[in-house]
Structures are given as structure tokens and as C-alpha cells.
Amino acid sequence: MLEVLSKTKLCQGAKRVLRLMTRRGIIASPEAFSYVMVSYSRAGKLRHAMRVLSLMQRAGIEPNLYICNTAIHVLVMANKLDKALRFLNRMQLIGITPDVITYNCLIKGFCELHRIDDAIDLIDEMSSKRCYPDKVSYYTVMGFLCKEKRIEEVKKLMEKMLKDSNLVPDQVTYNTLIHMLSKYGHGKEALGFLKEAEERGFHVDKVGYSAIVHSFCKEGQLEKAKEIINDMFLKGCVPDVVTYTAVVNGFSRAGKLDQAKKMLQLMYKKGCKPNTVSHTAYLNGLCRIGNSVEARKMMNMSEEEWWTPNAITYSVVMHGLRREGKLVEACDLIKEMVKKGFFPTSVEINLLIQSLCMEGKMEEAKRFMENCLNNGCAVNVVNFTTLIHGFCKRDDLEAALSLLEDMYLSNKHPDAVTYTTLIDSLGRNDRIEEANELTIKMLNRGLDPTPVTYHTIIHRYCQKGRVEDLLKLLDKMRSRQEYKTAYNQVIEKLCSFGNLDEAYKLLGRVLRTASKIDARTCHVLIESYLRKGSPLSSYKVACRMFYRNLIPDLKLCEKVSKKLMMDGKMEEADKLMLKFVERGYLSPQLE
């Protein structure tokens, strides 16, 4: 049971099994403890994983090489290589000699951190400690060298493998290199090793060839991929459906649909029947060039051609129809998809709802979502929120609020985004009281307001001049989720709507913290007063900033000073500039 649990994240369950063994007098082996350690590691609980060693000591069980290797593996997988190296030294101090598995774990750790040279040095060190590296040791380093396209170093490592460790590169070595290089998109280099392998008398199978073909297709070198398929026939290695499908996909993605179709026909000619993946690749190509109607026709003919569309096939064509604005056809396809036992993902459902909403087809969008919900599709809160947003944009608030109630009935609990969408729309339509009730309802349901929620509420309340109501609501919101710049935003928003007196009243709340953000808010208020032609009020704001040890912007205050002088307020103008002189920001000018 512990072995099974070690393959999951159910670490607490594994620990309970271990305790149950102890209670029943069953002696747990080090291997049993190692299974618990691995389970903790999978759950991302490294500290708990390493504490298993302490549990083992308290149980009176001596650690062995197996548990030590597990500990090193766990540390390496958590990117704690330095700790793994320290653990290696500690295990040797208590008389446990590392084996090739120990070193292979560390080699992988070095490679993961791009310390390839250290990994090679460790291979050299192994021989001096009479623990000889195996092919896995070399293959691990080769894999990372392949990823970085360091081909010359791979060849040197192959020579080193033969010379230092007497390990002859064999079929497995070449297959490993071919697959690794192909995986990372280095088809040309993989082909070079394939030819070298054949020159040495090794037989590379169709799987190796297919990997290279797929790599060339990903790089867009389709003619080269076709050449390799021709070479396969000459060498008696018959391509399979995977090989052909890679080329079909390559041509389809490149928009060369004629070539892709010819390749499908060639498959039939060579006795290799295209499968669902082959057809789906071609249909994807049709949809990418805006010919989703043709793709839909091909799907309808699938039974005649003896292939069955799968969930990916339906998804590809649905997205094609959606992109072309054929939304009714896309919805019909989803219905057919569900009837065939395939279910669209919540993301696919959302994209279609979004498209219908953008076209103003709100009732169709609602019916589509209800149909998905009734058929057991993965409809989530985002889908409901998208539909609510669509109704809000059309100012159909009754339908939007009705959907909010439907969410609770469907056990799809709305989140802060859902509420924020409705609050914004209610505020826009002068329904502030309802917006206020909905905000309180959101807080009572345990949802924290987001920065967007704050911004939305501040904007709408300031727009309507409901400052007192806004401040009361902000107090409730901030008790639930602190938002440091809430009052800054209120002042700046009031300034944008020209309600400067209300903004000035709130200045005290902002200047409590006297931060750079607060200085910026004060500058906004100063500039707003200047634009309104009230430099004396700007002067008062600047004085309050100085009182809180905040230095206003000098150039802005020079503008204020000039305006004050123009208005005959010479004393205030001089006092403002004198404050900068007193603080060393301006040199005194002698008359």
C-alpha cells in the first residue's frame, strides 16, 4: 500500500499507514519509510519529507543505502543540490557507501542547474571511488547537451564513455541521442547520428525515423521530411501512420493543404490507413485558412471514410467556425459533440459564449450555456460571469441579476469578479443603492474585494457624487481586505470629476502615511486647483505636505507661486518658496 501511495501526493495517508504498522507491531523497513518520504516530496513538502529520517531513528531503524538514495533524490527534485551534496558527505561519515544510483541522482541535479562540467567531473570522480559510471550516467549528461545543441561535446562524451568506462555505444545509445535531439528540434543533428548509427551496423527503426521526420516538420523543413520518408522505403523501413501524420500536420500548419491532401492519399496508396489524428491535422489546416465549412463537411463524411472524430477533432472545427463568425454552426457542433459522448472544456464553452455576446446574441448565448449545463458539461463560474458581463454591456441588468441567482441554484458560487461586473453596471445605470447592497452581500459571503472592485466602486460613487456613502462602504471593505491606496484613488477620482472640495476634505486620511504615492495624490489635487484658477487652495495643499515632511514638486510649486503673485497673494508666494529654501531645495536669492 505504501508503494502505491508513494506514487501520489497523499502523504498524510502514507504517514497514517506507517503509524498503523507501528501500532500493530509490524516492523517497518527503511524502504517503507522511503515510500512516505517520496509521497511528501510529491506533495511539495520537502521539510516533512526529510523529517521522515528522524521518525526512522526514533523507531530504532538504522538508515541504509536505499533510504539515503531516496533522500538525495528528493533533495535533487526540489532543486536543493547543495543540501544533497552535504547529505552525501554525511552518509559516508556513518559508513554508507554511495552507489551508481546515488551518483546518477547528483549528476541529474548538476545538469538541471546547467552545471554540465560539474556533472562530467562527478563522473570522473566516481571511478576514483571504485563506483564506476554506467550508461545512465552518460546518457543523463548527453540528454542535456543535446538540449543545448552541443553536438561536439556529445561526441567527446561518447569517446570518453568508451575509453574511460569501457562502455561501447550501442543501439540504445544512438536511439537515445536521436530521440533527444529530435525532441528539442535539432532534426539535422539527429539525422547525422542516425547515419552514423547505420554506418556502424545498427538498425534504426521507424520510431527513430518518425522522431526525426516530426522534428523537421516542426521546423518547417517539409521537403526534407519527405526525403527521409523516401529513404525509409529504400532501406526497407516502412513508415507507419505516425510518420505520415507528422508530415500531414506539417503541411497543414504551413497552409499547404494540397500537399497535405496528397500525403493522405499516399497513405491509402501505401496501405497505411490515416487515423483520427491524421484527419484532425488536415481539418486543423482547413480551419486555419478560414475553410471551416469544408472541415465540417469532411467530419460528416467520417463514417464513410472509416474514421471517428474525437474530442480534439470537434474542438478544432468548433474553433474554426467560431473564428469565422459561424456561431450557430459552432453551437450545433457542440451539441453533436455532447451526443457522441465528448464534452467541451470550460475554456471552449467560454470562448463561444464570449463570441455570441460580442455579436449581441444574448439569448442564444444563454440557451447554449443552459444546454451545456443540462448535459453535464464543465460549466464554471467564469462561464456565468462572461454571460453576466454580456448582459451588463447591453444594460439588461434584470437578466444579469437573474443569472446571479441561477448560479447559486446551480451550485456555481460567484466570485469577486462576478460581483464587480454587476456592481459596475448598477453604478453606471444610477442604481447606487442596489450596488451598495450587492457589495455588502459579497462581503457577507466571505469574498474579498479585489483592486478592480475597489477601483470600480470608487469610480462609480465619485462619478455620482456619493462621497459619504462611498466612505462608509470603503470602511466595510477595508475591514475585510486592506487596500492602502483606496483614499488616494478617491481623491484622484474626485479631482477628475472636478469635485475638489470633497477631495480636500479627505487629504488628512492620505497624509497619515506620507508616502511617495501620497505625494503624487497631493500633486494631482494641486494641479486640479491650478486648472480651476484657485492657487491659494493649491498653496494650502503644499503647506500641508510640508507639515507632513513631504516635499512637493518644485516646478509645480513655482507655477503655484507665479499664480499667487498674479492674484496679488505676494506673502503666500514668498512663504511657499521660502519653505524650499529652508529645506535646502532652493538657494536664497539676494536682491
Describe this entry's structure for a reader.
The structure is a single chain. The mean pLDDT is 89. The protein is mostly helical and 591 residues long. It is extended. It starts with a helix and ends in a 9-residue tail after the last helix. It is 73% helix and 0% strand. The protein has helices at residues 2-5, 11-23, 30-42, 46-58, 65-77, 81-93, 100-112, 116-128, 135-147, 151-165, 171-183, 187-199, 206-218, 222-234, 241-253, 257-269, 276-288, 292-300, 311-323, 327-339, 346-358, 362-374, 381-393, 397-409, 416-428, 432-444, 451-463, 467-480, 486-496, 500-505, 507-510, 516-532, 535-547, 554-566, 570-582. α7 runs parallel beside α9 and α33 crosses α34. The longest helix has 17 residues, at 516-532. The protein is built from 35 helices and no strands.
Summarize the structure in short:
The chain is an all-alpha fold and 591 residues long.
The whole-number mean of residue pLDDT values reads: 89
Annotation, overall tally of beta strands: 0
Helix content: over 70%
For the terminal residues, how far apart are their CA atoms?
93 Å
Radius of gyration computed on alpha carbons = 35 Å
Beta-strand share of residues:
under 5%
Spans of at least 5 consecutive residues whose pLDDT stays below 50 are none
Structural class: mainly alpha
Assembly type = single chain
Largest sheet at a glance? none
Show the helix and strand layout:
Blueprint: H1 2-5, H2 11-23, H3 30-42, H4 46-58, H5 65-77, H6 81-93, H7 100-112, H8 116-128, H9 135-147, H10 151-165, H11 171-183, H12 187-199, H13 206-218, H14 222-234, H15 241-253, H16 257-269, H17 276-288, H18 292-300, H19 311-323, H20 327-339, H21 346-358, H22 362-374, H23 381-393, H24 397-409, H25 416-428, H26 432-444, H27 451-463, H28 467-480, H29 486-496, H30 500-505, H31 507-510, H32 516-532, H33 535-547, H34 554-566, H35 570-582
Helix pairs in contact: 2-3, 3-4, 3-5, 4-5, 5-6, 5-7, 6-7, 7-8, 7-9, 8-9, 9-10, 9-11, 11-12, 11-13, 12-13, 13-14, 13-15, 14-15, 15-16, 15-17, 16-17, 17-18, 17-19, 18-19, 19-20, 21-22, 21-23, 22-23, 23-24, 23-25, 24-25, 25-26, 25-27, 26-28, 27-28, 27-29, 29-32, 32-33, 33-34, 33-35, ...
